[in-house]
């Protein structure tokens, strides 16, 4: 069907019940810019300096074209086009079958279950379509919401990297959680392909 609006159509990539994951597009620039510079998000982010429009534009252009080692998708609620957050697989390594998962939900939409739904959708995709074997999740030990969200989706704490981050006067451990495809398939009553 022809799209006569100036605004490019949204391309839904993964359909869920509570949220859909869609491709990013140029018009997401200002939503993303305000998300990554949001003071509440900066508190749990590794980035400290302002992320400028020009930097974010370059980042967005790169990710719209697509990259081998990263996949970024916008999180939307059905029948709405504005993204309420962003989810990604990064450091995708096809040789070892691993990747890291990152997610940011706009603070006004947190605590409503959108995070775990989006995480389950992308790990299902990673294990059943990208043939990854293991997904890692790295977070500040102080970021309880992040740890709860990961655990709700079956991630298990694997390691603590001592005093890895400095926030104000505090040194904070990095926590790494992970989920293996075999456990995800068992938890979801799915069968492993035997070649
Ligand atoms: C971590 C995050 C993705 C979780 O997504 P979410 O949609 O908020 O997930 P949930 O709704 O299941 O909330 C997870 C838990 O944190 C609590 N929570 C999350 N945000 C909250 C908020 N703003 N206020 C109060 N409680 C909150 C929820 O109550 C829930 O705990 P519960 O199940 O025991 O009630 C989201 O909070 C977020 O984007 N945080 C900032 C970025 C971040 O930390 N990313 C993860 C690092 S990779």
Automatic annotation (TrEMBL):
Query: What name does the UniProt record give this protein?
Result: N-acetyltransferase domain-containing protein
GO MF annotation, one: acyltransferase activity, transferring groups other than amino-acyl groups
Q: Name the PANTHER family on file.
A: GNAT-FAMILY ACETYLTRANSFERASE (PTHR43415:SF3), SPERMIDINE N(1)-ACETYLTRANSFERASE (PTHR43415)
UniProt source species = Candidatus Liptonbacteria bacterium CG11_big_fil_rev_8_21_14_0_20_35_14
Record Pfam families: Acetyltransf_3 (PF13302)
Where in the numbering of this chain does the N-acetyltransferase domain appear? 19-182
């Amino acid at each position: 069907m022809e799209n006569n609006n100036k605004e490019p159509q949204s391309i839904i990539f993964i359909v869920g019940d509570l949220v859909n994951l869609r491709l990013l597009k140029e018009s997401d620039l200002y939503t993303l810019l305000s998300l990554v510079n949001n003071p509440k998000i900066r508190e749990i982010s590794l980035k400290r300096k302002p992320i400028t429009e020009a930097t974010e534009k370059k980042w967005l252009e790169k990710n719209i074209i697509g990259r081998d080692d990263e996949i970024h998708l916008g999180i939307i609620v059905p029948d709405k086009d504005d993204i309420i957050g962003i989810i990604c697989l990064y450091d995708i390594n096809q040789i070892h079958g691993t990747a890291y998962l990152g997610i940011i939900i706009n603070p006004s939409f947190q605590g409503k279950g959108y995070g775990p739904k989006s995480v389950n959708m992308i790990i299902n995709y990673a294990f059943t379509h990208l043939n990854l074997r293991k997904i890692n999740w790295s977070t500040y030990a102080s970021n309880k919401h992040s740890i709860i969200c990961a655990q709700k989706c079956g991630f298990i704490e694997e390691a603590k990297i001592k005093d890895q981050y400095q926030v104000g006067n505090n040194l904070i451990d990095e926590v790494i959680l992970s989920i293996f495809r075999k456990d995800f398939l068992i938890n979801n009553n799915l069968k492993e392909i035997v070649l």
